[in-house]
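Exercise: predict the fold of this chain.
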Amino acid sequence: MKPIRVGLLGIGTVGGGTWDVLNRNADEIRRRAGRAIEITQVADKAVEVARKKVGRKALVTSDAFELVRDRNVDIVVELIGGYTVAKDLVLEAIRRGKHVVTANKALLATHGNEIFKAAQKKGVMVAFEASVGGGIPIIKALREGLAANRIDWIAGIINGTSNFILSEMRDKGISFDAALKDAQKRGYAEADPTFDVEGVDASHKLTILAALAFGIPMQQKKCFVEGIRKLTADDIRYAEQLGYRIKLLGITKRRERGIELRVHPTLVPTRRLIANVEGVMNGILVKGDAVGPTLYYGAGAGAQPTASAVVADLIDVTRLITADPEHRVPHLAFQPDQLSATPILGIEQVETSYYLRMRVQDRPGVLADVTRILADSRISIEAMVQKEPGKEKRVDIVMLTHQALEKNVNQAIAKIEKLSSVVGEVTRIRLEELL
C-alpha cells in the first residue's frame, strides 16, 4: 500500500519535533497505521534552515499555498499558528479535499465553527489533539473515551507558563514580576507573555474543551478571562495557610440555566491532585456522571510532547482515510446537526465560593461594618483570619465565603471599598472545591 503523503506547514519547534518523531518511530507508526506515513513536502519561510533539517527526504518551499494545492499531498499539517494566514491555508486545504491536522488552538477557538462546517461538507477530517494539553490525550478522551458520560464539568491547568510562575511564587515567596523574569530566562515565557499570564491562551483551550464536553459551538468571545498578573505573594501565602493553593484554572460547568465558561486564578484545596500539579506541567480534571472525576496529567507544551499528539492524529486520519465520513467520530464529539444552543452564562451569573482580602485600619467597628455589608448581600462567611497589624496600624483581613452569586459579591465589594476604614481595593479570588 502506498505511503500517506504529508505536507508540513512550519518546521519550527513543534514542526521539527513532528519530523523527528515521525522518522524516529517510522516502523512502529507503520505497524499501527497499516501503512507508512511520510512527510514529503515542507513549507517554511526559512527555506535554508528547513532544508538542513530535512535533507533530501522532502521537498522544501517558501510558498505554503503551493504545498496545500499540490495533488501529491494527502494530509496537511498546519503548525504555523495565528488566525489569518493559517485560516486561509486550512480552508484551502479543505476545499482541495485534503485532511488537516493542526495544533492551532487560537485558530480553532476563533474560527473552528467555520472550519468544521467546511470539513463536514467536503467529507474530510480536521484533527486537533495537539491544540490542548500538548501530549496529553484529552481531546480523544472527551470525544471517545468518555462518550458514554454526561460531562458535568471540566477544570484544568492548561497553561504551563502561568503554572510555573505561580509555583515559583509559592515555593520562593517571590513577586509575580520576579517569577515572570525567571520564566523568561528559562524559555518558559515569551518576551511578550500577555497571552499566557492574562489567560488568553487558556481561554482558547477551554473553548475547545467546552465544545467537546457539552456539544456546543466554539464561543471564545463569551469566555470570562482574568489573568494572574495582580496576584501577590501575600495572597499565595495566605491561601496556603488556609489549606489552599492558587492555580490559574480554565473552568466550564453545566448548569440549569446554561454553561459556565471562565478562566481565572482559583483557590483549590491542597488535598486535591490538581492542586499539586506544579511547574510547567498541565493537569485537567473531567467529571462525568458515570465515571466520576478523572485526571489527565502531563507535559502541556514542548517539541516532543506536542509532536506526539500531532503524529497520533496523523495515525488516526490514516486509519480512517478510506472510511465513510458518516461513520467517523464527529469533530466536536456530537453529531453536527445535534449541537446545542445552550447559552453561555455571564460571569455575574456564576455561583461559587470566594477568598476576600482587604487591608483595613486597626480600629473598633471595622469588622462589624464589613460583615454587615456581606450579610446584606446574602454572602455568608465560612472562615476568617485577621493578621497582626503593621507599623501603620493597618491589618489584613482574609475571609472565605460560602457559595454566593458573583453579582452579589461585586455589589458587596463596591460597598466595602467605599468604607473610610478600608485601604485600597478588595482582592477577590474565586474558590472551587472540585468535588
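Check your answer against the key: The longest strand covers residues 244-254.
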